[in-house]
Each structure stands twice: as structure tokens, then as C-alpha cells.
Amino acid sequence: DYNICVLNSSLVKVAESNKTSNANENIDIALTQGTYYIQIYSAFGSSDNLSYKLLISNVILDEYEYNDSQ
Q1: Model confidence band, residue 36 (pLDDT cutoffs 50, 70, 90)
Q2: Measured between alpha carbons, how far is 49 from 13 in angstroms, rounded to an integer?
Q3: What's the rounded Cα separation, in Å, for the pair 60 and 63?
């Protein structure tokens, strides 16, 4: 059981996923331009030597994407 979070350049957590058991973790977030870090960590009492798969996708939004007004 791993959890995942996104940290900004000041190492402040901006998003987190901490589902129970072996459920797939996911974060869907719109970020402004900048530097971000992804932290993957073992949940309390879980093994930290198991493998995992990390998928990242980058979607560039147009200026109207947030409100779809045009």
C-alpha cells in the first residue's frame, strides 16, 4: 500500500492520494507552471520494498478550458 502526493517548489503538499489497501492511487490536478515533486511513500505498517508503476500525463489547457466559455 503506497500513497502519493504532489509537492510544490517550497515542498508544500498541494495534492494527495492515500487510498486504503492496494487500490490504485491517482491525482488529477491542474497546476500552474513551475517545479513540482512527486513523493511516493509506504503507508503505515506496509512494506516499502515492493515495486510500483508511475504514470504521468501532461495536458496543456487553453485559456478557456477551466470554464469552457468559448
Answers
A1: very high
A2: 24
A3: 10
Cα distances (Å, whole numbers) of residue 18 to 25, 35, 55, 68: 7, 22, 16, 31
Residue in the structure block whose three cell numbers are 501532461: 58
Q: Taking all residues of the chain, what is their mean pLDDT, rounded to a whole number?
A: 80
C-alpha distances in Å from residue 44, one per residue of 3, 20, 28, 41, 57 = 10, 11, 24, 9, 28
CA distance 18 to 41: 10
What residues have CB less than 8 Å from 45, skipping those under 6 apart?
none
**The whole model's pTM is what?**
0.69
6 forms beta bridges with 15, 38
Torsion of CA 20, 15, 4, 68, to 10 degrees: 90
